[in-house]
Amino acid sequence: MKRILIVKVTSLGDIVQALPVVADIKRAFPGVQVDWAADEAFAPVVQWSQGVDRVLCAPLRRFKKSRRWSDLKAIWASIGELRAYHYDYIIDIHGVYKSAIIAFLARSSRRFGYQSQDLGERGASFAYTGRFGPRPQGSAWHGMRISASEALGYEVEGPPIYDLRLPAVVPQPFATQDAPVAALFHATSKAEKKWPLTHWAAVGRDLSERGFRVVLPWGSDGELAEALQISAQVPGATVLPQMSVTEVAQMIGACALVVGTDTGFVHLAHALQKRTVMIFVATSPAHCGVETPYRSTSIGDGRSVPPISAALEAIDYVHAAEPVLAMQHGSAAA
């Protein structure tokens, strides 16, 4: 076994939670080269993984919106990079048309993907020469580890290893303060996943009373307006400037606590071993949640709005005086 390609194209949280597959493969096959194919928008996240040897990316999302000739040329150029090596195995743990096309274009006679009933888009099945077993019940993140192990013939062992190292941290104005920083990720990709602004304000006030400096990131004009509404009700809260994915990751690295909805940056906080509370309103915590004793936890049932008290109890839990049973071999920031 010399070289393996993992295909997981989007999105931020899914890519973060798929990264432990790399550590699993490298434990099972010492010396193997592991490449990863992702959308250009999320390539930096894969590049932070110390186990990935080569990151292949193309502006797929951007081209879908722009239809610019320059983006199309970049996609064509990426195909040449994709075909530069022959792979012993290709593992598509995404399961949609775009990931299947990438798997099909890459050079390998062994391309593994999900069974038809488990695919995000059933037509993606054309690309595969082999299939994983049925997706196991429970966590989607553990399921990806199981699927890769079935294709390559090894056993999954131990907790997930993310093995992240961020770029050198640019000094953040808020990080120079004496108070520990708590980031509230109130924004969501879908309206049904939102937690009420009144709840965020209540949690922010509680954290401020505990001695935290509360910061509010955002990514769109609507999210900025909501951040300003929350900050107006939280003493000392700071609405951050708009930041890149890397800058947000560095900000997370400077935090003592992250509280947020089921979004990619909160998954990243968990992977970076930050004390993390993830709030579920309309998605399944059993399927998509995070859980590490005394460090990360998920609240909500995925069918209703969790009360403020549940969030405060979860914050108490991740800040308990018990020893943090974190992944000692997990993640680090430079």
TrEMBL record:
Underlying gene: waaC
Protein name per its UniProtKB record: Lipopolysaccharide heptosyltransferase 1
Organism (species): Paraburkholderia youngii
Pfam families to which the protein is assigned, alphabetical: Glyco_transf_9
GO CC term (a single one): cytosol
Lineage top rank: taxon: Bacteria
Location in or out of the cell: Cell inner membrane
Signal peptide location: none
Cited InterPro entries: Glyco_trans_9, LipoPS_heptosylTferase-I, LPS_LOS_Heptosyltrfase
NCBIfam families according to UniProt: heptsyl_trn_I (TIGR02193)
Tagged with keyword Cell membrane: yes
